[in-house]
Amino acid sequence: MTTDYQSGRVSLGARMRELRTETGLNGKDFADRLGWQRSKVSRLENGKQTPSREDLQQWADAVARPDVVAELVGRLTGLETRYRSLRRQYATGHRARQEQGVVETEQTTLLRAVEVVRIPGILQTPEYARAVFTANAAFRDVPSTDIEDAVRARMRRQQALYEPERRFRVLLWEGALYALNAPREAMAAQLDRLRSMIGLDTVELGIIPFAAELRRSPSHGFWIYDRRLVIVETLSTEMWLDDEDSIALYEKAWDWLAESAVYDEVAHRLIGRATAAVQKLA
Fold first, then answer.
1. For 49, which of 43, 84, 121, 279 could close a Cys bridge (C-beta 3.0–4.6 Å)?
2. Number of structural domains found in the chain
3. pTM for the whole thing?
């Protein structure tokens, strides 16, 4: 977990401990009152485990303080809003998360994105998206029954590309043009799709060449929605950051990466070179 997340969890645990000590019960007796293992009470109070909403309700009942339920759940919601488990999000499949992407895009005028090893969803072809969803379902051992619904939702999100009031500024590390996240034929079609985006007045596509001099390395992908939200995905967690410091930091990272990118005809040539490489190896 990140430092911010852990600090929040420790703070929540400290508040729970405070409520428990006000009852005059030690940890063992309090666990007996709840019908829990003593170790669970200890983990929660020390920020070693994230409580569920049911845990917090039972805790409030055990300390005879129904008035603190909203406070405790509010603290938990703050953690869940900023750091979302991808395992939980994908538990029922991919469609719901894609529908959420549609909503966020509809609320955004300027979207800035960085991707390192795959083509961003807003520019994906159906075949490429399908391959990405299928691989993700297998990796995470989650249902794949709604993949076609997820693909349709992702394509629906792309309608925003043609709305004149919106702008999409996308930076791609050149390696993403070669990473075969889909079968070769699908990848070649995906690269053709990228080339077709160059010149669209709502889209600015920049490629960061392998040989570019960098002020900031493109260590991971991220998305900036206007100046209200940054979404960053790690292997297990999706972070939704809306504080001013985080937004400013990611804007600076985006600006520095943009300095190293090439655009228009040069970007077109790099994509064409990648297409030729993919087709040659087919």
1. 43
2. 2
3. 0.74
In the prediction, which pLDDT does 80 show? 65
Domain span at 56: 3-83
**CB contact at 8 A, 38 and 31:** yes
Residue 12 · residue 75 · CB < 8 Å: yes
CA distance 154 to 157: 5
* Token reading at 280: 């040659």
Q: How many CB atoms lie within 10 A of CB 198?
A: 16
The secondary structure element, H or E, covering residue 136 is helix 126-140
Tell me the pLDDT tens digit for each residue of 161-220: 999 999 999 999 999 999 999 999 999 999 999 999 999 999 999 999 999 999 999 889
- In angstroms, the CA 172 to CA 154 distance is 19
Strand-pairing partners, residue 206, are: 171
A 10 A CB-CB count for 272 gives 14
Strand partners, 237: 85
| 27: nearest Cα among 65, 50, 59, 75 | 59
Q: Taking residues 139-144, report their average pLDDT.
A: 90
136 in the same domain as 50: no
- Please identify, among 83, 118, 145, the residue that sits at the C-terminal boundary of a domain: 83
